[in-house]
Structures are given as C-alpha cells and as structure tokens.
C-alpha cells in the first residue's frame, strides 16, 4: 500500500479561517476565485511537511496558524518504522502530523502524537511528498536526488553493477580505515615493541621459576640467622637429652626425668588399669623426646654460617623482586606477563605484513571500483540521453516547444558511495539559451511545468507517493492546458496528485474537485473548502471558463471538457 494524505485541516492560515480538505487517493484539484486562499492550501501542505514557517502567513487576529494532516501508511512500512523509532505512533494505519506557527514566529511540530523538531517533518517528508510550488525548494533540484532519480530511471541495467560497486566501496572504506589506524599508530607500535622486547629479554636472562621468590626469602632468613638457629637447637638438645660431657651427676634432662616417672608407675601398673595407661603414655613421651633430641642434634650439625651463599641468595632475591615490581606481584605473575607479551609482540610484528596485505587489497579495490564506476557512468549516460529526450518531448506538449532538458553526467572528486558521477538536470528554455541548472534556467511557471514533465517521465521510477503542484499551468491555455491535465491524470495512476489551478482544462481531469469558497463579512474574509459533486463541477468549470456559473454556453463547454477528460482517463 502506497502512503497518501487522506485529510488536511487548516486553521488561521492566510485568508483561511478554518478549512478541511478530504483528498482523493488519485488526482485532486483545488480551484477558487482569486484571493480565496487556493495557494494557502499548498502553503499548509508545505508547513505540514517541514516547510519554512512565515509568521506573516498567520491570519490577522489569530494567535497561531495550525495545520493537521491524517496520512494513510502501511503499519509495517518504512514510514511507520521511522515514526516508531522517533517515539510516535501509527494507529490502524493512520499517522497524524501537526504543525503550528505562532504570530510571533514560534513553530512546533507533532508526529504520531509526539513532539518533534520541525526538521524531523522534513526528514519524514522525503519519503512521502514532493511539493512543487513557486516558492518551494524543489525536491529534484537537489543534486543527490537527481542522481538517485536517474538511477531509478535507468532501471535493472544499473542494479547489478551498482550493487557490486557499493560492495567494493564499503570494503575499500574498511581497508582504508584499518590502514590509517595501523600507519598512524606506527610510532606507538614501535614504542610498545621496544618495551615488550626489553621486558622479555630481561625475564629470559633472569629465568625466574614459579615459587622461587618464596624459596629465596626463606633461605635468606635461615642464612642470616645461622648462629642463632644453631645455638637454639643445641640448647634444646641439651635440655631434652642432657650433655654427655657433664659426668655421672644426677640427670636433670627431660629424657631422664620422664624415665624416672615411667619407672615409678611401672612398678605398680598391674594394680590399676588407669595407671597402666598412664605408664604407656610416659613410654611414648620418652620415645618422642628422644627422637626430637636426635633431630635437634642433626639440625645443629647442618646449620652453618655461609656469607658467600647468603650474598648470592640476596643478589638473586633482589633480581627476582625487581622483576616482580615491573611485571607482576610475584614470579608466577612475571612469567604470565612474559607469555602475554610474547603473544602481543607476535601480533605487532605481524602488523607490517598486515599493512602490506591491506595495501595490495586497496590497490585491487581501487582498480575494481574504477572498472565498475566506468560501467555505471556508461549506463547513466545512456539513461540520461533517453531521459532528456523524453522530458523534452513532454515539454513540447506543455507549451514549451523550444525548451530542451538534458542531463549532465560528470566525474566528481574521487569515489563516492554511488560511483564517481555527479548528475545535474539542465534546461535550455529556448534554442539560443545555454543549458543551465533547473533552478537557474526557468521561471517559476516554467519550472513547475518542467517538474511536471520530469515527474511524468519518472512516474514509474520515483517512489514518492504524493505530489503537490501550485501554478503548474501558469502562462498556458488551450490545447497545452489540456495536455497538462492529461499528464497530471497519468501521473495520478501511480501516485496521489494534488494540484492548485485556475484552468478548467486541468480541473476537468481530476478524480476529485475541491473549491475554495470565500465570503466577506466586513473586513474579514473567511474561506472554506467544499468537495463538488458532478453537477457542482460543471458549474465551477463554467465559472472558470466564462466567468459566469449559469452561462449555458459555458456549462455546455464544461460538460464537454468533463466528458473528454473521462474518456481520456478510461483509455489504457
């Protein structure tokens, strides 16, 4: 389903006090007497889709001008998704857009019930409407739009090479970005490599072992206190086992005293099981004390003061501790750092190879893009020739027989997302005039007719669902006016078309006819918009033809116009 504008409500805008426009999905024409406010309809639509807010357009005596539009959109379509992303809502396929302009110049906008910046309406309108009015910034005057429109006109011939080019372009951007990162970080990478290599060399020379720092700390403590340790062991041994050099005096050592205690209870152990148990425990204590005394003697013999070994241990310990301060809290952490550093160094050493690889790929991508861009240029140039001829033919029928439209396809600066081409629509208004960009080569009325011709040619390719034309028929009449009406009707087969006109030949081709009526009550003019019946259309066309609603001749002519238009529209 193509989006379309279903209804527009206008309040306090220019001469319009309040008006409601119910629009046809096909061709709607808006007519009315001079000064009734026809152009305000286009102005209102322009405001609705993000146009410039002019406080001078606010109706005298009103605080603000308000325009509210109801649009029909697909709930699963692109526009609905955009509205949802902005926090708005589309209910049952209806999207409400509103815009107010205060007399002081303040402007506010709402989209799907959500307040949004006015620029958001312009963003949404890109996929909804093209407004062609004398004072509007024309959509197709934008270079990017002209290139995109020509690409759509070129059709399937362009799709495959354009897709291939876009893929190569995206990859080229990725390669360039990666190369930029690798090359701009060359100094930092070199510094990091130096730090890593220095650290790895230092650790490799020291060759620390897991747990070595704790072992060195224990050995240093033992060596530094060797004399005290030996004295303590010797004293303890003497206390437990006695001094064999002390003579046959009464023993006072622990082993002798425990032996005496055991002998005292062994003599009577048979009289009481409890005492027997204590005797056994005394025996065990004697054996244990003897074992400990023996080990103390051996320990005392093993402990020697070794200043040379102590110095070596302290030196090694200082080395390992220094590594821990730089690379980790202990020897195990230092070795972990070394493993990680070796991995990182391999990555950094591989960057040079990666740069060479990416550089080769970049050169290949540039060559590929050049080839594809040349194909795109050739296809666009061929499409431009066909398009220029088609639009020129349309202009001949639109009372511009000497005008010629051409499409200039020129090479831009470097590769872009869609190739190397810049596309510009140009108009030569008469044979002696040089081709100029559309905005400079045509007057307001001519530009509207050029835009109509372009839109008719683009009808099947341009996805914009709604077109609005103001004064598209300026300066023409007779047969040319009939041709304008016929082409607007043709455009309406694929899109919604809204036209403000003063020509009955154009109005006769409409699917719906709205008339802007005015009534004067003193100094205040109020305008309303009325949808005409078939009878009302004949009266309005009669007024437009003869200036008299009840002229029999004018009415007959009007009915003839309606019949001709209906027959033409029914022709495939």
TrEMBL record:
Record has Nucleotide-binding as a keyword: yes
Gene3D superfamilies: P-loop containing nucleotide triphosphate hydrolases
UniProt keyword annotations, A-Z: ATP-binding, Coiled coil, DNA damage, DNA repair, Nucleotide-binding
Claim: Coiled coil is one of the keywords in the record: yes
SUPFAM superfamilies reported in the protein's UniProt record: P-loop containing nucleoside triphosphate hydrolases
All copies of domain RecF/RecN/SMC N-terminal, residue ranges: 6-521
Coiled-coil ranges per UniProt: 355-386
InterPro entries: DNA_recomb/repair_RecN, P-loop_NTPase, RecF/RecN/SMC_N
Pfam families to which the protein is assigned, alphabetical: SMC_N
Task of the protein: May be involved in recombinational repair of damaged DNA.
Family (UniProt): Belongs to the RecN family.
Protein name: DNA repair protein RecN
Gene from which the chain derives: recN
């Amino acid at each position: 389903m193509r989006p379309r504008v279903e209804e527009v409500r206008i309040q306090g805008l220019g001469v319009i006090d309040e008006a409601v426009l119910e629009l046809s999905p096909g061709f709607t024409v808006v007519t009315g007497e001079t000064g009734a406010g026809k152009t305000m309809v286009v102005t209102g639509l322009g405001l609705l889709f993000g146009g410039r807010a002019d406080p001078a357009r606010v109706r005298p005596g009103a605080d603000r001008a308000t325009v509210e539009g109801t649009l029909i959109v697909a709930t699963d379509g692109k526009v609905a998704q955009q509205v949802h992303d902005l926090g708005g809502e589309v209910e049952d396929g209806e999207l409400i857009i509103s815009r107010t302009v205060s007399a002081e110049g303040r402007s506010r906008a709402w989209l799907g019930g959500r307040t949004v910046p006015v620029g958001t309406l312009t963003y949404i309108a890109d996929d909804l409407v093209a407004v062609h009015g004398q004072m509007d910034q024309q959509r197709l005057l934008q270079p990017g739009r002209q290139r995109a429109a020509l690409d759509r006109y070129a059709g399937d011939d362009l799709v495959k090479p354009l897709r291939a080019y876009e893929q190569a372009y995206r990859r080229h951007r990725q390669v360039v970005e990666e190369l930029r990162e690798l090359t701009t970080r060359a100094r930092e990478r070199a510094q990091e490599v130096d730090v890593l290599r220095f650290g790895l060399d230092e650790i490799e020379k020291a060759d620390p072992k897991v747990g070595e720092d704790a072992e060195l700390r224990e050995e240093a403590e033992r060596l530094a206190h060797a004399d005290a340790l030996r004295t303590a062991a010797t004293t303890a041994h003497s206390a437990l086992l006695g001094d064999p050099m002390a003579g046959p005096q009464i023993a006072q050592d622990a082993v002798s005293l425990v032996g005496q205690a055991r002998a005292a209870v062994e003599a009577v152990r048979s009289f009481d099981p409890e005492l027997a148990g204590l005797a056994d425990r005394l025996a065990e204590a004697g054996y244990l004390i003897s074992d400990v005394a023996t080990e103390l003697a051996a320990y005392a013999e093993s402990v020697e003061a070794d200043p040379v070994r102590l110095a070596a241990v302290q030196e090694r310990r200082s080395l390992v501790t220094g590594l821990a301060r730089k690379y980790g809290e202990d020897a195990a952490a230092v070795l972990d750092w070394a493993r990680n550093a070796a991995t990182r160094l391999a990555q950094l050493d591989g960057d040079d190879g990666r740069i060479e690889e990416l550089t080769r790929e970049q050169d290949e991508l540039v060559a590929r893009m050049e080839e594809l861009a040349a194909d795109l240029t050739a296809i666009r140039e061929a499409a431009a020739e066909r398009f220029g001829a088609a639009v020129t033919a349309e202009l001949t029928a639109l009372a511009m027989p000497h005008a010629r439209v051409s499409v200039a396809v020129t090479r831009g600066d470097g590769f872009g997302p869609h190739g190397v081409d810049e596309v510009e629509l140009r108009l030569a208004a008469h044979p002696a005039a040089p081709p100029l960009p559309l905005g400079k080569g045509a007057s307001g009325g001519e530009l509207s007719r050029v835009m109509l011709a372009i839109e008719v040619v683009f009808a099947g390719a341009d996805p914009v669902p709604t077109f609005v034309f103001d004064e598209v028929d300026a300066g023409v009449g007779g047969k040319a006016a009939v041709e304008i009406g016929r082409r607007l009707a043709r455009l309406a087969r694929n899109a919604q078309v809204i036209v403000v006109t003063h020509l009955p030949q154009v109005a006769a081709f409409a699917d719906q006819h709205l008339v802007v009526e005015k009534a004067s009550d003193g100094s205040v003019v109020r305008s309303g918009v009325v949808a005409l019946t078939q009878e009302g259309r004949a009266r309005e066309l009669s007024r437009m033809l003869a200036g008299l609603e009840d002229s029999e001749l004018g009415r007959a002519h009007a009915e003839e116009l309606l019949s001709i238009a209906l027959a033409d529209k029914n022709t495939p």
